[in-house]
Design goal:
The chain is α+β, with helices and mostly antiparallel strands. The protein has 4 domains: 241 residues, Beta-Lactamase (2-Layer Sandwich), CATH 3.30.450; 106 residues, Beta-Lactamase (2-Layer Sandwich), CATH 3.30.450.20; 64 residues, Helix Hairpins (Orthogonal Bundle); 144 residues, Heat Shock Protein 90. It contains 13 helices and 20 strands. The strands form 5 sheets. The chain has a 6-stranded antiparallel sheet with strand order 9-8-13-12-11-10, sandwiched between helices. Strand 5 and strand 6 form a beta hairpin.
């Protein structure tokens, strides 16, 4: 026999349903606030307890990743100048107002605000220039009279000046949800009153409450799905970041590493301790190459001080590849009780930057030495001339003048090399092309070597060929090839110059019978500031000649290269189009 429930039983059940409804609404509002904080940038990381410990998901990335994120975010984003004109807009804002992106950029932001909200919008923008602010307005669109939106405004100090960043969140669904929630609350209150006065319709009332509860459960499920979607988007950001991101425990052992971190260190989650001295996969070093003790590693310093570390560079020597340099940012992870339970670290590979700095330092040292030599020689000659000006010796005078001339010529060549590199770097190397005979150019560029009488030139091939190029620049390349042959192969009496006419180009080569070039040095010969040596012998020069020559030939649309064999000799060659 079915038990008859009393009015008090039904009232208690109704109150229980009301409390559960209130709790569901509270969780909905809490989730909405969390999502809003993530959207407006008030949250830059999430700590999630997944049952096995706390996981940190950071929302920060490199500039390039941030731009991709801005284009893919569901909110509209614009940048305004001081006059309120749109300097930048993402695709979502253009879609929000129903216009092509090109019709948004450059327009006044006020054109997209409804008339009744213009005054409030102007007030918000004025406040934003003084500090971060937000407010709700109505936007004009091409497909709807207006849509409610939340504006979050913040100043940006860019290279081109102070700008205003505006994040626009469409509140249409949120307003609808809020209205729906209010309706449900009103319905619940009405149901309570009906239940209080109408005991006869109790069964139907319970069915209505059950139906409404099912709706709330579906809404809760939808919110949870949205949270999972946000988590997936965060994971996508971490997976595509250009920096390595890792989370470590208090012993420095990785418990999470994004793909870039795994690539940099060649590891997977939990495989290695980042600052362990006995790590079998790599050795941590100071920038100068000395061993880095465990307690001086930036991660260890962060754990010891419980303070963030920024842009701390160290070197890493791997077993199977060359030394790398990384910049480390590290921050401690503190739980709600103030206890240190790990750290988050980002890695940026700065090997190229470090090599560039070292290359520049080496160049400055070489340039200082190379410039000092002719200047010192010239100074000595002038001092001797000064002493003998009242009693000059014709022989000594001629010798000093000749020595001064050579010093000035060497100094002038060094300065010209530096000027040519600067023109190449800034795209200012001009070519004055004309048609000329190859043989005439070779004779002109080899005259200085023939005059010295040390080497014998063997010139052969199609010397009557015509090419269309900058004769002075091509001659500069030939002189560099010939000077290198004389410098690096001083015992090679014979220097061979060959001209070969191919389909639509001419190939010119300079060969010596010197000691040859080590195979590992050949790929770097045409690099800027690179200076090759042989058998430990140091040669003068800035390491710019072949670099400048390569740039000249490339600007002509030709090719340049070298063939060398140890103990046999080297052949430097280049090609130029016939027309």
């Amino acid at each position: 026999m079915e038990t008859t429930r009393t009015y008090q039983d039904l009232l208690k059940e109704l109150k229980d349903l009301q409390l559960e409804m209130e709790e569901t609404r509270f969780r909905l509002e809490e989730a909405t606030d969390t999502i809003e904080a993530i959207r407006t940038g008030e949250v830059d990381a999430l700590i999630v307890n997944d049952g096995e410990g706390h996981q940190l998901y950071t929302l920060k990335s490199a500039d390039q990743t941030y731009r991709i994120f801005i284009e893919q975010m569901t909110e509209g984003a614009v940048t305004l100048n001081e006059n309120g004109h749109i300097l930048y807009s993402n695709s979502q804002f253009a879609q929000l107002v129903g216009l092509p992106l090109e019709k948004v950029t450059g327009k006044s932001f006020y054109k997209f605000i409804t008339e009744d909200c213009l005054e409030e919008c102007e007030s918000l923008i004025n406040k934003a220039w003084k500090g971060n602010t937000k407010g709700e307005l109505s936007l004009l669109t091409n497909y709807s009279p207006k849509i409610p939106a939340l504006l979050s405004l913040k100043t940006l100090d860019l290279d081109e000046g102070l700008s205003l960043s505006v994040i626009i969140t469409d509140l249409t669904e949120q307003k609808a949800t809020q209205e729906l929630l209010e309706q449900k609350n009103a319905q619940l209150e009405q149901a309570q009153e009906i239940a209080y006065h109408l005991n006869l319709n109790l069964e139907n009332t319970v069915k209505e409450r059950t139906h409404e509860l099912e709706i709330n459960i579906r809404e809760k499920t939808k919110i949870e799905e949205n949270l999972r979607g946000n988590q997936q988007r965060l994971q996508s950001i971490l997976d595509t970041m250009a920096e390595g991101v890792g989370i470590v425990d208090t012993e420095g052992k990785l418990i999470y590493a994004n793909p870039m971190a795994q690539t940099i260190f060649g590891i997977k989650d939990g495989e290695a301790a980042l600052f362990s001295a006995d790590n079998p996969k790599w050795q941590n070093l100071h920038i100068d190459g000395s061993a880095l003790p465990d307690d001086e590693h930036p991660m260890a310093i962060m754990f010891a001080t419980q303070r963030a570390i920024y842009d701390h560079e160290i070197a890493i020597q791997f077993e199977d590849k060359e030394r790398s340099y990384i910049s480390i940012n590290a921050a401690p992870l503190i739980d709600q009780n103030g206890k240190l339970n790990g750290g988050v670290v980002t890695f940026t590979d700065v090997t190229a930057r470090r090599k560039s700095i070292q290359q520049k330092d080496d160049f400055i040292s070489i340039a200082s030495h190379e410039l000092k030599t002719p200047v010192t020689s010239l100074k000595a000659s002038i001092q001797l001339l000064e002493r003998m000006k009242n009693n000059p010796s014709p022989v000594m005078l001629a010798k000093l003048i000749d020595q001064s001339g050579r010093s000035l010529e060497r100094l002038n060549n060094l300065i010209n090399d530096l000027l040519n590199v600067n023109r190449i770097t800034h795209g200012q190397l001009q070519l004055r092309k004309k048609q000329f005979v190859v043989g005439d150019m070779i004779n002109s560029s080899s005259y200085h070597l023939l005059s010295a009488g040390v080497h014998q030139l063997n010139i052969n091939g199609d010397l009557d060929s015509f090419i269309y190029a900058d004769e002075q620049r091509v001659e500069q390349v030939m002189i560099n090839f010939l000077n290198n042959a004389a410098k690096y192969a001083p015992n090679s009496i014979d220097i061979i110059i060959a001209v070969e006419k191919l389909d639509n180009k001419v190939k010119i080569s300079v060969a010596d019978k010197g000691p040859g070039i080590l195979p590992e040095k050949i790929p770097h010969l045409f690099d800027r500031y690179y200076r090759a040596d042989h058998s430990g012998t140091q040669f003068s020069g800035l390491g710019l000649g072949l670099y400048i020559s390569a740039e000249i030939i490339k600007r002509h649309g030709g090719e340049i290269g070298v063939d060398s064999k140890l103990g046999v000799g080297s052949t430097f060659w280049f090609t130029l189009p016939v027309q």
